[in-house]
């Protein structure tokens, strides 16, 4: 251990910044001018740093980078264990480019992109190592940066970027104090909202479909490792230029995606403009976040859509209203579903709305006769399904349970019918 410390100490300048750059250092700086980058040197060595500043009114797709200001604290609803967020200055947007896909010791983050608000600017910094020997200096710089923030916003960072970085700190024997850092991973939010309406929840797909960001001549993230290895072989900074641009766009997109999410959480997006599937997912997501008023607004607006648009969503919608105790709305949806199936002339209607209505009329309305009618229709539908799917144990079990329900309801109906007694009628005498 002492030998390693001695070697590291020899890298430290006796008085940082006192010595003018050497000829080699000036040549290294000049090499990266074409990429608008420079060499950053500290007591642990050096690495490449590219810094770009954007005005807050700079638009990246549909949003300006400053749109998040004044609304950043809303993001804490995504991580309720984080405490209280003071403002946008506490946010650090993070994205890494690595040599592989795993989170093991062999995966090295050769580029770390960070974005943050500073004064009237949104700053993007990209830390790049020209070889593994520069990783220590890069991590030391990053550690100092992290102390100024309390929220790390990423896209799949909770399970990938951050574990990779923490492993590298450990392997380089740099102690990282990260108890003050809370992770806000927008990939989980994207999956909650768009997993059933977009082809994928990749950041590139989400930003194009929902944020209005169109990337032209973008290097796919999957190509980043190969381009880095090309740079290592050739030593030409131009080989890695596309990776710098890709990473920078990711950092910009994280900011505007965060703005989009805050608008959803605050009810500042027109729900009427969302397609039915997305509107349902937004409602379910808001309900999960314990924002009942906004969730109810989404579901009630969805319930007003036409039948074709919400056909596949009727049952989960009804389940939501049943859970909230709004049985009037739930019954209406179940009945609409049955009527829709009948009008469509479906040979085998859905069994579920019949069962739900049978349960509702038996237990809540205490109307055994109406419950019996729905249970019998449910049994007919279940038997049709059994005839088409022979040996389907689930359908057979359902039919058996329905038969038991019908027998119980028939006994209840008998009890609810008025008792008939034989009464001698008085016959009036005739004249």
TrEMBL record:
Coiled coil feature spans: 365-412
Residue span(s) of domain YprB ribonuclease H-like: 92-261
Keywords assigned by UniProt, alphabetized: Coiled coil
Cross-referenced InterPro entries: RNaseH-like_sf (IPR012337), RNaseH_sf (IPR036397), TPR-like_helical_dom_sf (IPR011990), YprB_RNase_H-like_dom (IPR038720)
Residues annotated as signal peptide: none
Stretch list, region Disordered: 1-27
Keyword presence, Lyase: no
Domain of life, source organism: Bacteria
Keyword Coiled coil: yes
Protein name per Swiss-Prot or TrEMBL: Ribonuclease H-like domain-containing protein
Species of the source: Ferviditalea candida
């Amino acid at each position: 251990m002492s030998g390693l410390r001695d070697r590291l100490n020899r890298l430290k300048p006796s008085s940082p910044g006192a010595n003018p750059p050497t000829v080699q250092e000036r040549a290294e700086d000049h090499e990266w001018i074409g990429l608008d980058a420079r060499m950053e040197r500290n007591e642990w060595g050096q690495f490449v740093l590219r810094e770009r500043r954007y005005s807050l009114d700079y638009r990246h797709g549909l949003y300006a980078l400053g749109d998040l200001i004044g609304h950043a604290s809303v993001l804490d609803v995504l991580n309720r264990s984080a405490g209280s967020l003071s403002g946008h200055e506490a946010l650090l947007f993070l994205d890494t480019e690595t040599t592989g896909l795993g989170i093991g010791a062999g995966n090295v983050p050769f580029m770390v992109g960070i974005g943050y608000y500073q004064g009237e600017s949104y700053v993007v910094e990209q830390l790049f190592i020209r070889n593994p020997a520069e990783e220590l200096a890069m991590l030391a710089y990053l550690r100092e940066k992290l102390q100024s923030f309390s929220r790390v916003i990423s896209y799949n960072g909770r399970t990938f970027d951050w574990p990779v970085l923490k492993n590298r700190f450990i392997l380089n024997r740099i102690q990282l104090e990260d108890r003050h850092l809370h992770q806000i991973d927008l990939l989980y939010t994207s999956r909650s909202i768009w997993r059933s309406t977009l082809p994928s929840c990749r950041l590139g797909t989400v930003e194009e479909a929902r944020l209005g960001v169109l990337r032209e001549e973008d290097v796919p993230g999957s190509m980043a490792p190969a381009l880095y290895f090309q740079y290592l072989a050739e030593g030409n900074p131009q080989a890695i230029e596309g990776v710098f641009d890709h990473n920078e766009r990711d950092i910009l997109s994280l900011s505007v995606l965060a703005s989009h999410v805050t608008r959803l959480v605050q009810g500042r997006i027109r729900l009427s403009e969302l397609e039915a599937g997305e509107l349902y997912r937004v409602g379910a997501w808001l309900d999960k976040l314990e924002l009942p008023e906004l969730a109810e607004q989404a579901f009630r607006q969805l319930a007003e859509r036409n039948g074709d648009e919400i056909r596949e969503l009727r049952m989960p919608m009804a389940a939501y209203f049943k859970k909230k105790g709004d049985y009037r709305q739930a019954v209406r949806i179940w009945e609409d579903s049955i009527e829709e199936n009948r009008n469509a002339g479906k040979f085998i209607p859905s069994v579920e709305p019949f069962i739900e209505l049978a349960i509702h009329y038996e237990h809540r309305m205490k109307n055994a006769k109406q419950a019996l009618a729905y249970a019998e229709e449910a049994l007919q539908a279940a038997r049709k399904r059994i005839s088409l799917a022979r040996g389907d144990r689930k359908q057979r079990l359902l039919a058996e349970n329905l038969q038991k329900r019908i027998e119980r309801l028939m006994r209840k109906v008998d009890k609810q019918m008025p008792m008939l007694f034989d009464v001698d009628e008085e016959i009036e005498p005739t004249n």
